[in-house]
Specification:
The protein is an alpha/beta fold. It has one domain: Alpha/Beta hydrolase fold, catalytic domain (Rossmann fold), CATH 3.40.50.1820. α3 links the parallel β5 and β6. α1 packs across α10, α2 crosses α3 and α5 packs across α6. The N and C termini lie far apart (35 Å). The N terminus is likely disordered. This is Alpha/beta fold hydrolase. It comes from Spirosoma flavum. Keywords: Hydrolase.
């Protein structure tokens, strides 16, 4: 597997944010990762799209190689970071691609109607209302973070299709290196935020895709807690796939992204 090597750190809102850039083109795809993940999950997708688009994948604060401040992990804090980075690296026309946790971040940013945003592509997004995580699951994740055995169990839960040993170890590594501050903040606050009242401000097409075998955020979550708040959204599934589509089914996801970008430009 080919990985991009041009990691860049930039000071955004007083902290160092890491991002990976690859390719060029008049349209930029801004990729945001899942809770406990990193920009690396997007490399298999970016490697296929970089010949057509400028691709930028961001490590959200407290994740990957970005700095981990003690505070500042609300949905709007993370959206502020993304918005500031977009301005700093001179992105004009762009598509936001958010996965899981960052799906909610992408929705929050899109509701601000940023100049240049053409559409949203959301992969198994956290809904605009509180995410349905049981109290027992929250407690378990809060008390076991940093334990390799827990990260391995999470890997089994969030994937359904086989991946290589290298990818498995990267998923586990990303989980373990997520800062405690970011981890706790999402589970105790961010995932519980309700931004549904802002969804009427969305003025771009939204395309949602999920794995039919997703056990972390089941497909019905999108039908009951996300789609009812969006006036211009589509919903698709990838059969036999789990929660980590960029790792599990990158080819199918690339096809979906290209199709949706093409449709948004025809509308």
């Amino acid at each position: 597997m080919k990985y991009a090597t041009n990691n860049v750190k930039i000071n955004i809102n007083g902290i160092n944010i890491n991002y990976v850039e690859k390719g060029n083109g008049p349209l930029t795809l801004v990729f945001l990762h899942y809770f406990g993940g990193s920009a690396l999950e997007w490399q298999p997708v970016m490697n296929q799209l970089a010949n057509q688009y400028r691709c930028i994948a961001i490590d959200l604060r407290g994740h990957g190689n970005s700095e981990a401040p003690a505070t500042g992990y609300s949905v709007d804090d993370m959206a502020d970071d993304v918005a500031a980075l977009i301005r700093a690296v001179t992105i004009q026309d762009f598509v936001l691609v958010g996965h899981s946790m960052s799906g909610k971040v992408a929705l929050a940013l899109a509701a601000r109607q940023p100049v240049g945003l053409r559409s949203l592509i959301l992969v198994s997004p956290s809904p605009p209302v509180p995410e349905p995580i049981s109290d027992d699951d929250r407690k378990d994740m809060l008390t076991t973070h940093g334990q390799r055995s827990a990260a391995e169990q999470t890997f089994e839960k969030v994937t359904a299709k086989p991946v290589s040993e290298k990818i498995k170890q990267q998923i586990i590594s990303d989980d373990l290196r997520t800062s405690q501050a970011a981890w706790n903040a999402w589970l105790t606050a961010g995932s519980k935020e309700n931004i549904s009242a802002r969804m009427d401000s969305l003025n771009v097409p939204v395309s949602i895709i999920v794995g039919a075998a997703d056990r972390a955020l089941k497909p019905d979550v999108q039908k009951t807690l996300t789609l009812p708040y969006l006036k211009n959204a589509t919903f698709d599934t990838i059969q036999e796939a789990g929660h980590l589509l960029p790792w599990e089914t990158p080819n199918e996801l690339v096809d979906f992204i290209q199709k949706k970008i093409g449709q948004s430009y025809l509308e």
